[in-house]
Every structure is written in structure tokens, then in C-alpha cells.
Amino acid sequence: MTILWVLGAVASLGAGVVGERFLGIRARRQSQKLAALKERLDVYANYAKLAAVRRAETEETLAGLRREVAEVEGEILSLQSAVTDEAALAPMEFYSVDRVARSGGPLWYVAVEALDATAPWSGVRHYAVAADTAEDARKRIVERYPSPSSFAISPAAQLVLPER
């Protein structure tokens, strides 16, 4: 019976050694996985810090841009009001070509700039042209001032005169 006890003890010891090795290997693998996950967590924490810094920088830049937009909008509004005030005070002067505007017909605005020193005037003349289309209005001005090197002619735009 002692042999049986010895064999039982050796078998238990062998099973314990095998179990300990198996559990040791498993514990090592779990420790390695845990270490890898901790490293990954550190990397993500650094990404989070970087994202927070960039977000703060972006919000600061956005706030600065909003201030600039507000300033520019204020400047635009002041310039628009100045133009409106000056436009109301300044008399409008247009040159016209050979036709008188029909009561229901459209008027077209065409600007002609004298480019050459030999031109009969200097600067820009503003023409009010009565024509059915913008192309017809520009064509009539081009017929009057055919030299492209002496005169720059703008595209025709619909002219709406203010009520006085």
C-alpha cells in the first residue's frame, strides 16, 4: 500500500507540475497581451492629448477668424452706406447715342474708357443705350468706337434709373 501512496503522490506531483507549466504559459501570454494593450492605451492617450491641443488651436483660430469676419462685415456695411449716401448726393451723368429711349424699352449701361492719349477725352464715359438686348447695345457702342487699342468697352448691363 505504500507503493500505491507513493505512486499516487508522484502522479499528483506530476499533474501539478504539468498544470503549473500550463498555467504559467497562459499567465505569460496574458501578461504580454496586457502589456501590449497598455502600450496601445498610452498611444491613444497621446493621440487624445494631441487632439485636445489641436482642437484648442483650431478654436482659437476660428475665434480669430470670426473676429476678422465681423470687422470686415462692419467695414463692408460702412462702405455700402457711404456709397449709398454719395450715390444719393451725386448727380448721374450719362452720354447717350443717337436713339431716344422708348417708354417701355430697356436701357443698357456701357462704360467706354479712353486708353490712348489721342482719344478725344480721358477717363471713362458712361453711356445709356436704348436697345432690345445687351448685345445690340454693346454692338452700337463698338460701331461708334471701333478701335480696340484706343478704347476699352465694357459689357452691357441693364440700367435701372432711380426715381426722383
From TrEMBL:
Coiled coil: 55-82
UniProt keyword annotations, A-Z: Coiled coil
UniProt superkingdom: Bacteria
Keyword Coiled coil listed: yes
The keyword Coiled coil is annotated on this UniProt entry: yes
This protein's name: Uncharacterized protein
Organism of derivation: Azospirillum lipoferum (strain 4B)
